[in-house]
């Protein structure tokens, strides 16, 4: 197998693109495609102050690596979730990466907002699914830290597989309102909401993993223990079977959806956002769900302390 560009020995074959490439040409090919996506969806440019949400995994460290190596002004944000045997290791990966690249890393800790409780403890206290509590808290902290730090845009490492599995889930359940909002760019639509973008939406998980490996990124291979059994993983397996039989189908599915996303816009309900009475960040209610969660936790902790 020879590299289609230089004729040297190829190290990766991309059936979706009908191409085999050596390491050097793969890195160039991969980065060029990501930069094209950034330009196509007008995500950001070199004048912008960028905050990259990093978890220590291959996707987020790879996008940070790519942006730094291409001269973007990109700072990392790690959120410590307090998940045993996972958070400590993933935090070290981010700290080591930042040191190695001489890059700036901000660290936020969920415990600082919730009376010293970790994500699994909060979920247990309020009897809700861990991932739903985690998602709510992460979204709030990412947005708030981005605004407080004066960043123009928040970057996440969601890849093509993540986006296609979300799309697939929304389609089979006909979640038309979610379909109307699914896009690689979420524009700022409130003065306390930062623009959010996903530059890896056209790169598969395998392509990102190959990039991380070739660039020598020391990322966290272990997955979060709460991701085991997630429906999204089941969808990803189904979609990989489809990709195996019809290479390029994941990319065609997603691109076709973006090109035709106008179809779903009639289902879009314009959310009336206002400032949360407690924190001032946007919400559709009087008090935002993050502040309500904090209050519930505060009450529960106070009650249990009363019993002591
Ligand atoms: Fe949070 Fe769930 Fe993701 Fe773990 S798998 S980081 S608990 S959302
Ligand atoms: Zn609030």
How does this structure look, described?
- The protein is α/β, with parallel strands linked by helices.
- The chain folds into 2 domains: 233 residues, HUPs (Rossmann fold, 3-Layer(aba) Sandwich), CATH 3.40.50; 38 residues, no CATH class.
- It is 48% helix and 12% strand.
- It has a 6-stranded mixed β-sheet with strand order 5-4-3-6-8-7, with helices on both faces. A two-stranded antiparallel sheet has the order 1-2. A two-stranded antiparallel sheet has the order 9-10.
- Helix 2 links the parallel strand 3 and strand 4.
- The longest helix is centred in the middle third of the chain and has 19 residues.
- The radius of gyration is 20 Å and the shape is globular.
- The termini are far apart.
- The structure holds iron/sulfur cluster and zinc ion (ZN).
- Iron/sulfur cluster binds next to helix 6.
- Helix and strand composition category: alpha/beta
Do you know the CATH topology of the largest domain? Rossmann fold
In helices, the fraction of residues equals 40-55%
Number of domains: 2
**Large-scale geometry:** globular
Number of helices, where a helix is a run of at least 4 consecutive DSSP H or I residues: 12
CATH architecture of the largest domain: 3-Layer(aba) Sandwich
Major sheet strand order:
5-4-3-6-8-7
Low-confidence stretches: none
Mean pLDDT: 95
The H-and-E topology, N to C, reads as: EEHEHEHEHHHEHHEEHHHEEH
Rg estimate, integer Å: 20 Å
**Ligand catalogue:** iron/sulfur cluster, zinc ion
Note the beta-strand portion: 5-15%
**CATH homologous superfamily annotation of the largest domain:** HUPs
Largest sheet: 6 strands, mixed
Tally the beta strands. 10
The end-to-end span amounts to: 70 Å
Provide the CATH top-level class of the largest domain: Alpha Beta
């Amino acid at each position: 197998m020879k590299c289609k560009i230089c004729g040297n020995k190829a190290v990766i074959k991309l059936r979706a693109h009908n191409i085999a490439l050596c390491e050097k040409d793969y890195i160039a090919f991969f980065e060029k495609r990501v930069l094209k996506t950034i330009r196509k969806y007008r995500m950001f440019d070199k004048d912008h102050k960028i905050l990259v949400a990093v978890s220590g995994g291959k996707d987020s460290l790879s996008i940070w690596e790519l942006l730094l190596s291409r001269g973007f002004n990109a700072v990392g944000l790690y959120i410590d979730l307090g998940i045993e045997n996972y958070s400590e290791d993933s935090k070290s990966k981010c700290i080591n990466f930042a040191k190695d690249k001489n890059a700036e890393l901000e660290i936020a800790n969920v415990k600082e907002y919730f009376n010293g409780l970790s994500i699994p403890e909060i979920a247990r206290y309020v009897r809700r699914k861990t991932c739903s509590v985690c998602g709510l808290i992460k979204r709030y902290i990412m947005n708030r830290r981005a605004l407080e730090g004066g960043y123009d845009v928040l970057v996440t490492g969601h890849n093509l597989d993540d986006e296609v599995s979300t799309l697939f889930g929304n389609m089979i359940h006909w979640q038309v309102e979610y379909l109307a909002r699914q896009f690689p760019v979420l524009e700022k639509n409130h003065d306390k909401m930062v623009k959010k973008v996903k530059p890896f939406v056209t790169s598969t998980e395998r392509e990102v993993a190959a990039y991380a490996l070739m660039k020598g990124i020391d990322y966290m291979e272990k997955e979060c223990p709460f991701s085991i059994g997630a429906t999204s993983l089941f969808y990803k397996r189904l979609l990989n079977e489809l990709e195996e039989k019809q290479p390029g189908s994941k990319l065609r599915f997603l691109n076709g959806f973006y090109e035709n996303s106008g179809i779903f816009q009639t289902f879009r309900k314009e959310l009336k956002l206002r400032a949360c009475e407690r924190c001032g960040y946007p919400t559709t209610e009087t008090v935002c769900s993050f502040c309500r969660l904090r209050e519930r936790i505060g009450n529960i902790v106070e009650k249990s302390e009363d019993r002591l």
